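If your schedule permits, I should be very grateful for your opinion on a structural question. What I wish to show you is a protein chain and, alongside it, a tokenised description of its three-dimensional fold. Would you kindly read the sequence against the tokens and tell me how you understand this chain to fold? Here, with my thanks, is the record as I have it:

===
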Amino acid sequence: MPQPRSPSTTSPEFVRIPRGELPSKTAALARALIGVVLVRETDDGIVAGRIVETEAYTVGDPASHAYAGERPRNRSMFLAPFHAYVYFIYGTNFCFNVTSEDKGTGAAVLVRALEPLTGIAVMERRRGTTAVRDLCRGPGRLAQALAIDRSLDGLDLLSAQALWLARLAGTAARVGTSTRIGITRAAHRRLRFYERGNPFISGPRRLSPP
């Protein structure tokens, strides 16, 4: 079982992912994002975490926000690939997604969990806990830890300064798949991706065998 990296108290040199490196097809992107670093820059400093769990919401997917077409609420979901789609859910939490497919085609990848890497003290203050495992384990928690809200909706994640995607040197992730969490439509589809054995993933253990 892979061991989690020790959270850093400094800001490592993350390398921004260039255009053309990530796939744009939704399921392929959801898999490829496992192991990618999400970097957030604010006045409080840099916080970052390694993506360890995603869910794909594909073209024509009845569980997708884009299924009924473009609306003001989901407009960013129809942008070109690798933009942020941020929405508010249950009146309490923001959720962060990476857009996919061609411009004008609504699809995206929900980022469900991060393994914290740097800016731990800032994350703890925002989350109100010192339990590192719980800082970014779940989409609402990670949005709170990284101060992600609707002000970031529509950002180009390959060029923006406030929120961007980066590479981290190391062993490639061992990726597992399962059904998605917390949906009723198309619930049988195996479109959830996670790093096998990583303690920072969310959801019931039965869905995440090591």
